[in-house]
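Hey, quick one: can you model this chain's 3D structure?
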Amino acid sequence: MGQTEGLADRTHATRAAAAARGVDAVAARMRVLDASWPRRDGVAVFNRVYLAVTQEVGRGVAVGRFPDARAAVTLDVRFAERYLEAVEAATADRLTPACWRPLFQLRRHPGVRALQFALAGINAHIGHDLALAVVDTCHGLGCEPADLEDEFDRVGDILVSLEERIREDLMPGPDLFQVADPLTHLLGSWSLDRARDGAWSAARVLWALRDFPGVAEELRGRLDDAVGLVGRMLLTPLPD
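Sure thing. Here's the predicted structure for all 240 residues.
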């Protein structure tokens, strides 16, 4: 390996490590929240899931899984900040985005299962926050949504793999399958893949409307309300 190639590799490694620290800072905030909430709290259930996703993104950045580490970290951090801002609003008794309200309102309901809490949080974050985070990132980096598609897809792949694990870990066992049949039906009506595809389409439309702020704001409001409605259905209390 020549000196130029060696320098390029070291530079890339240094930048990747610096970028990963941005993700680590977000993960640290989530760990603080995890330590402050009861384990069965519905928002805590989602927070643990999201912490696992964030840590996986950080590891991916550190090992060069993302071709553009800066773009990946910017997207990941802008994405996480929307969830953390919703937490701060709820903690201060301020109004949260409509997409998050069902989870915060029902976080201690005894008739809602852990899997419902986890997927309702994912629904809010993917269905609403991800689209806005893409737009935020494009503004911040001076790029187009198409420039972020690889990073968007790689983060989405991590989410899909974790969603499968979440369903396996939190779904009631075979002996409870008949009792849990309403849960199976309810959660089978929601798809992370469809939510991710919808977020990408919404991000592209919002970016195209960036010179029409009134129309873009109306679309954001309708998206927020629609995702909140889905979240409320996902959190339908079920009999024991």
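One thing worth noting: The chain has a mean pLDDT of 86.
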